């Protein structure tokens, strides 16, 4: 898996994930993921457009980072998950506790509030 | 963890910087070298100098010495040795007439001639008295020889012997320069001399002895002593006569003899007054047969102003020692060679400072081996070693051939070899130790792995034992047909199921899947399952299922620093009515299957997986089961089972499998069919996730 952070205006960080988010994939990115979300950004957008598969360990990774952001009062949005990943988010009920947006403008609006 | 460095191109030799044994050993060797304590070093040195001479033998430039050779042909012609001294006198006379510079006689005549006329006469029985008197009035052979010897510049020699032996010695006066050389030179206790008559007749007196080292004459003394009397060598004494000097000189300092000389001529020597013989190859041109001399068959200019040696080569008369070149030559030729080297100023010298230079070379090589080589890469070591060896050899050879200086390079080589072998041996022993260490590590790791394997098997047995066998639990319950299975992908898994009677009419069941796999998932599974059951059993029977799950969620989430979570489908089935109430905490929606019907799904989701949000209120949903419906609950180990090509089994395939269910099938049959299909789909691929299935059917009241 690959991960990179992209600074947007007004303290928003966009994190781009790519690759299969299974045990091996998460191991590759989790340290960097934690570093990025551990910054001072008021809003974090996690772009999942390039993630074709996500297992429960991937959910855990998203959740851990969401908690880290919300603990300091920040906003956390998952952007553009592919259909399979989106259905995993729905089945697991994660979409009930985490914002999932299919539109960039909408996502930016949510984290910039 | 084992870390094997493979493809290490660095030296296998390890630096000895930390060790002190080798540097100390090196210094000790150096000390021994300077003191001359190293065993076999003299032999090694002799071999080294022999090698120089074999590689570049001396060239015979001028031929100052001629050997009149009493050879096999002479013995055949004039009879066996000893010849009558009159014959020898005749031979010397012939030579003497040709005006040689000196005549050296390499023959010792310790007894009077037994074939003098008088002696022979007394042996004839019944000899006439007058004839005997007449014979005895003739000069004896010895007198005749003495007369001849007196007439020409002749030199006789004595042999030094190491036992007390009465002797009378006539000697040449010696002039000593500097310190007393007597303690330094080779000293014999006694001497074998020729009879006085002959000794008194000659002008030169010499000592003929040379020590032979294992059959090789490498050094010959230019001066030696018998008792307290110093004598020059045959060659030196001949040179003295040739020059016409009245005395020979010996120069010495505190370290011993520096040189010998006659007249203007100075010959540097070793401290014991010897010189290293600088050999050229055996040359028949040095020899002229005594037969030819006696028969007058020679050119008188052959001996004109030459140093003439008279000696034997006839077999059985003399030993043939080896030269440094490995040739066996008669001893008299060695005298000739010494004369040639003195004449051509090509005498060899091993200077007093030679051991210091050798010690310096040993030090340099030693330091190279101990400190430099181990730090070099392997491919660089060999060329360096070859270069050093060649440089050393070249230096030794150049010093020998250009400056006639003998420096021993064999000793540094030996030290080099000894140190190198020591280093290699050390490296090998270290390597072996390392391998043993690695083997030990490996064995320990295997044992540890086996121990862990054992622990894991115990953990698996424990984990499998805490999930119930539905057949046992609901043995006496005809209204329910419940089957369940769980198969961890690894030794222990993160899936769980449970089922028990909550009271006489209600069945509680749960299927869960902890995120991740392995031991931490298994521990979390045990906590989750235990807390759920405990809360279910001790809660108010009328509590809403959602509230019960919310309570369990709070308890499980409380101590969860690792942020693990478990997706779960939890249900309570009322066996009186088939009423199912359920909570789906982020789990795969279960399937509803009835023969002849399309597969349905319990789609409702109550909320996120358990342990994520500790204050989440889970929603409860209802469904009324009909008696021909199967509720099929599973974990993603089923839908995400992958074959070797990473294709997933998938929910659609699962639905098709359960759809083809026959009328007579029971829960257990349906479950086994699903399991079989999943396994045959995976083929030889290793299961990536735990497989857990639970199938429930309500049989109704009647």
TrEMBL record, chain A:
SUPFAM superfamilies named among the record's database cross-references: SpoIIaa-like
CDD domains: STAS_anti-anti-sigma_factors
NCBIfam families: ant_ant_sig
Protein's name according to its UniProt entry: Anti-sigma factor antagonist
PANTHER family listed in its UniProt record: ANTI-SIGMA FACTOR ANTAGONIST TM_1081-RELATED-RELATED
Domain STAS: 11-113
Pfam families in UniProt: STAS (PF01740)
InterPro entries: Anti-sigma_ant, STAS_dom, STAS_dom_sf
Transmembrane regions: none
Similarity annotation: Belongs to the anti-sigma-factor antagonist family.
From TrEMBL, chain B:
Coiled coil start-end: 428-455
Annotated keywords: Coiled coil, Hydrolase, Membrane, Transmembrane, Transmembrane helix
PPM-type phosphatase domain: residues covered: 479-698
Any Pfam family hit: CHASE2
Gene3D superfamilies named in the record: PPM-type phosphatase domain
Matches recorded under PANTHER family: STAGE II SPORULATION PROTEIN E, STAGE II SPORULATION PROTEIN E-RELATED
Name of the molecule in the record: PPM-type phosphatase domain-containing protein
Organism of origin: Marinobacterium zhoushanense
